[in-house]
UniProtKB/TrEMBL annotation:
<dbReference type="GO" id="GO:0016757">
    <property type="term" value="F:glycosyltransferase activity"/>
</dbReference>
<dbReference type="InterPro" id="IPR028098">
    <property type="entry name" value="Glyco_trans_4-like_N"/>
</dbReference>
<keyword id="KW-0808">Transferase</keyword>
<protein>
    <submittedName>
        <fullName>Glycosyltransferase</fullName>
    </submittedName>
</protein>
<dbReference type="InterPro" id="IPR029044">
    <property type="entry name" value="Nucleotide-diphossugar_trans"/>
</dbReference>
<dbReference type="InterPro" id="IPR001173">
    <property type="entry name" value="Glyco_trans_2-like"/>
</dbReference>
<keyword id="KW-0328">Glycosyltransferase</keyword>
<feature type="domain" description="Glycosyltransferase 2-like">
    <location>
        <begin position="1"/>
        <end position="117"/>
    </location>
</feature>
<dbReference type="Pfam" id="PF00534">
    <property type="entry name" value="Glycos_transf_1"/>
</dbReference>
<feature type="domain" description="Glycosyltransferase subfamily 4-like N-terminal">
    <location>
        <begin position="318"/>
        <end position="491"/>
    </location>
</feature>
<dbReference type="Pfam" id="PF00535">
    <property type="entry name" value="Glycos_transf_2"/>
</dbReference>
<dbReference type="InterPro" id="IPR001296">
    <property type="entry name" value="Glyco_trans_1"/>
</dbReference>
<dbReference type="Pfam" id="PF13439">
    <property type="entry name" value="Glyco_transf_4"/>
</dbReference>
<feature type="domain" description="Glycosyl transferase family 1">
    <location>
        <begin position="502"/>
        <end position="665"/>
    </location>
</feature>
Length: 688
C-alpha cells in the first residue's frame, strides 16, 4: 500500500493486519510512505516487530509512483511466482483475507488479475439519500454486494483490494504515474487504467468475493459536495482512459457528450422548477462528471505541444512498423509522447496488445488514398476533405510523422496533415525506383511538402532514391538526415549457451553447419534464391541445414520446392517468430538474398548475435555491409559467385568466428538503441 498522511487510519488498518490468519506461503507487507508531513512514517515503523513489514519511501509524489516503487522492490527481492496484493491505508482486511487470496489464485491459475470485495466501514451512519442516489462504487470504491465469484469486467477491479501475479510486472507492466492520487485534485482511475490495459493485452480479470476488506468512509465524505467532487474527478479520469479520435469531436470533446451535456442542463432546469430533489441531485452528478471530462479535455488541448502521431500506409508487420513503435519510445525519452495510427493488417491486434503493456496506443486510421490509387483519385480527395481531415484532427497531434514505405505511399496522409495545418516529418524506409508525378498530382504534392519540417531516411541509398523524386518539392529549410534502424543489443546478443539452446529448440544437430534468414517469404526477400543457393551448397557441404524464419505469400511455394528437391529433413521453417533473438544464434551465417532493401533490420540483428552476415549487393544491405568487417556482399544475379563466397566462409570456421566478433562490435557501436536514439532526438530537436 501507499500512504500519504495516513496517520489517522493506519493504526486501525495495521491492527487488522496483525489479526490476519497466516496463509501457507510466506508473506510480506510493503508500505510506501509518499511525502507525509504527519507522523505516518514513525507509526508504521512501530509495527515492524509485529508484522513482516518493510517501510519504503518514495522520492516522487503520487500514489502510482509509490506503488511502482514497491513493485520494483518486490521484483528485485523475490524471485518466486508470488501474488502482489494491493490495498489502501484506510482499508482493513478481514482475518482470512490472505488465505482467501491464496485459495483464489490457486483455483484459477489461468488468471493473472483479480479483484476482491470492498465493503463499507462507515465512520458515521450515512444519510438516507446517499445509498439511494449515489454510485457508491465510483464514489467510495465499494464493490457491489451481489457481484458473483467469476470473470469480471476489468474496470470493476479497484485499488483498495486487488491482486496481480508477479509475472505480469516481470513482463514490464507498471501503473501510469500521470493518473490517480497525487496530493491534490486528480483524475481518478489509477488502478482501472492498469487493469483495462492488461485486459487488452490478454490478461482477463476474476472477482473473488471472499477476499474482503472494509473501506473506512469518513464523516466529511458523506456530503453532497464530496460526492459531486468525486463525480468531477471521475470525469477527468474517464477522459484520460478514452482513446483520442474514437468519436467525432469538437474542441477536443466527443460531440455526443456535448449533446448529452445540453440535455442534462435542460433536465437540471426542469428539476429545479418542479422541486424534484432526487432528480435534481442526479442531474448535478451527471453535470459534474461531464464538467470533469471537459476540464481534462481542455488540459489536453493546452498541452505541451509535444504530441506526435506516427502513421503510414502499412500492409503488414515488418521492420518499418517496429521502427515506428521504437520512435514512440525515443520521443518519451525527450519528454514528448507519440501514438501509432495505421490501417488494419494481419497480426495488428496481437502486436497492439504487446505494445499496450508500454502504454503505446495503436489506433485504426485508413484515410482515402488519392495519390496511391489513381482510378478513384478525385472521389478519394473529396472524401479526404470531408471525412479524413476531421478524423486526423481528432487525434489532437501537434506533429504528424509519416513513415514513407514506397514511391508515393504516404503522400495522401502527408497532404492531409498540411490540409489540417499540422506540421509533419517524413521517415523513408525503402530505396524505391524513380516514379513519374502526374500533372494532376503535382500541385497537391507541393501543398503536401509545404508543411514538412524534416526528412530522414534509414540509409543513404533510401535518402538518395527519395530525393531523386521529391527534392523539387522540399523547402530549403527542411531538415534532412540519415538515421539507421536500431537493434536492442541487450536482447540480441551472442553466447554459446544461446547457440546450444536455439539449436536444441529447433531440432538442429549441434555439429551441423546452418545457414538461414529471418525474412518474410515474399518476392522482395527472394526466398527461392536462398533455397537455390542452399541446393547448390549442399553438393559440397552435405552436413548443411537451412533455417527460414518468417511467413508470407510464397510460403506454400517454397515448401513445395523443398519437398520436390527431397530436402525436407534439412530445411526448418519456423513461421513468424516474435522472439527472433532466440532463433538467430543457431546460425553459422545469416544470408539475405533480397533484390531490394530499405535497410535490412534482420542483418543487424544477426550481427548483434555475433553471427556473420551475407547479403546481396543492393541498396539498403550495401549501406550496412559496404565497409563492414562482419559481413560480405554477393552479386544479386550471380548465384554461382554467391555460392563460391558462402562456401568459402563455411570452410573457414576461424574466419566466421572473427567476423562474428567484429559484427557484434559494429552492431553495438553503430546500431544500438542508445546510439540511434541520440540521432533521432537530435533530429526532432526544435521540430516539436
Amino acid at each position: 500500500m501507499a500512504t500519504c498522511n495516513g496517520e489517522q487510519t493506519l493504526s486501525r488498518v495495521l491492527e487488522g493486519y496483525c489479526r490476519l490468519q497466516a496463509p501457507r506461503q510466506a508473506w510480506q507487507l510493503l508500505v510506501v510512505e509518499n511525502g507525509s508531513s504527519d507522523g505516518t512514517g514513525k507509526l508504521v515503523a512501530g509495527y515492524q516487530d509485529r508484522l513482516p513489514l518493510h517501510l519504503l519511501r518514495s522520492p516522487h509524489p503520487g500514489k502510482n509512483a509509490a506503488l511502482n516503487l514497491a513493485v520494483e522492490w518486490a521484483l528485485r527481492n523475490d524471485r518466486g511466482e508470488g501474488l502482489y496484493i494491493f490495498s489502501d491505508d484506510d482499508a482493513t482486511p478481514a482475518p482470512d483475507w490472505l488465505r482467501q487470496w491464496e485459495a483464489c489464485a490457486a483455483a484459477h491459475p489461468e488468471y493473472a488479475v483479480f479483484g476482491g470485495a470492498i465493503e463499507p466501514d462507515w465512520a458515521h451512519p450515512p444519510p438516507e439519500w446517499l445509498p439511494r442516489l449515489v454510485p457508491t462504487g465510483l464514489t467510495f470504491g465499494l464493490t457491489a454486494p451481489d457481484l458473483p465469484d467469476g470473470p469480471v469486467f476489468p474496470g470493476l477491479v479497484w485499488g483498495a483490494n486487488m491482486a496481480v501475479r508477479r509475472a505480469v510486472f516481470a513482463a514490464g507492466y507498471r501503473y501510469d504515474t500521470m493518473i490517480g492520487p497525487n496530493g491534490g485534485a486528480y483524475a481518478m482511475g489509477g488502478e482501472t487504467e492498469l487493469t483495462r490495459r492488461l485486459a487488452l493485452a490478454g490478461y482477463p480479470a476474476w472477482f473473488c468475493p471472499l477476499a474482503r476488506v472494509g473501506h473506512y468512509i469518513r464523516r466529511h465524505q458523506l456530503t453532497a459536495e464530496y460526492v459531486l467532487d468525486k463525480a468531477w474527478r471521475y470525469g477527468r479520469g474517464k477522459y484520460r482512459q478514452d482513446r483520442p479520435g474514437t468519436f467525432p469531436e469538437w474542441l477536443g470533446v466527443p460531440r455526443w457528450m456535448l449533446a448529452r451535456y445540453a440535455l442534462e442542463c435542460l433536465g437540471y432546469l426542469r428539476a429545479r422548477l418542479t422541486g424534484a430533489g432526487d432528480r435534481l441531485f442526479l442531474r448535478r452528478w451527471e453535470l459534474a462528471y461531464l464538467r470533469g471530462y471537459f476540464f481534462e479535455a481542455r488540459l489536453g488541448r493546452r498541452g505541451t505541444g509535444r504530441q506526435v502521431l506516427i502513421t503510414s500506409y502499412s500492409g503488414e508487420l515488418g521492420g518499418m512498423e517496429m521502427r515506428m513503435a521504437q520512435e514512440v519510445r525515443y520521443l518519451r525519452q525527450a519528454g514528448a509522447d507519440g501514438s501509432l495510427a495505421l490501417r488494419r493488417f494481419a497480426g495488428i491486434d496481437a502486436w497492439a496488445a504487446q505494445l499496450a503493456r508500454e502504454q503505446i496506443t495503436v489506433a485504426e486510421f485508413d484515410p482515402p488514398r488519392f495519390f496511391e490509387q489513381w482510378a478513384w483519385r478525385r472521389w478519394n480527395l473529396l472524401r479526404a476533405r470531408l471525412w479524413a481531415a476531421r478524423r486526423l484532427r481528432a487525434f489532437r497531434a501537434d506533429l504528424v510523422h509519416v513513415a514513407w514505405c514506397w514511391t508515393n505511399y504516404g503522400a495522401s496522409v502527408l497532404w492531409l496533415a498540411r490540409y489540417c495545418r499540422l506540421p509533419a516529418v517524413v521517415s523513408v524506409h525503402n530505396a524505391f525506383p524513380a516514379a513519374e508525378i502526374s500533372a494532376w498530382h503535382r500541385p497537391l504534392l507541393r501543398q503536401a511538402f509545404d508543411g514538412v519540417r524534416g526528412v530522414y531516411a534509414v540509409s543513404q541509398s533510401a535518402l538518395e532514391h527519395f530525393m531523386a523524386i521529391y527534392r523539387p518539392y522540399l523547402r530549403a529549410s527542411t531538415r534532412v538526415a540519415v538515421i539507421p534502424n536500431c537493434v536492442d543489443v541487450d536482447r540480441f546478443k551472442p553466447g554459446e549457451g544461446l547457440r546450444h539452446a536455439a539449436r536444441s529448440a529447433l531440432g538442429l544437430p549441434e555439429d551441423a553447419l546452418v545457414i538461414g534468414a529471418a525474412a518474410r517469404l515474399s518476392e522482395q526477400k527472394r526466398p527461392m534464391a536462398l533455397l537455390e543457393l542452399f541446393v547448390s551448397l549442399r553438393q559440397r557441404h552435405p552436413q548443411l541445414y537451412l533455417l527460414m524464419a518468417g511467413s508470407g505469400p510464397l510460403e506454400v511455394a517454397v515448401k513445395e520446392r523443398v519437398r520436390q528437391a527431397g530436402l525436407a529433413p534439412f530445411v526448418v521453417f519456423t513461421g513468424f517468430v516474435a522472439s527472433i533473438e532466440t532463433v538467430l544464434p543457431a546460425l553459422d551465417l545469416h544470408i539475405l538474398m533480397s533484390w531490394n532493401e530499405g535497410f535490412g533490420i534482420a542483418t543487424i540483428e544477426a550481427m548483434a548475435c555475433g553471427v556473420p552476415v551475407v547479403a546481396t549487393d543492393v541498396p539498403g544491405s550495401a549501406d550496412i555491409l559496404r565497409d563492414s568487417q562482419g559481413g560480405v556482399l554477393v552479386p544479386v544475379h550471380d548465384l554461382e559467385a554467391a555460392s563460391a563466397t558462402v562456401s568459402g566462409l563455411l570452410d573457414d570456421a576461424e574466419r566466421r568466428r572473427s567476423m562474428g566478433r567484429l559484427a557484434r562490435e559494429e552492431a553495438v557501436s553503430r546500431y544500438s538503441c542508445a546510439v540511434v536514439g541520440k540521432q533521432v532526438l537530435a533530429f526532432y530537436d526544435q521540430l516539436i
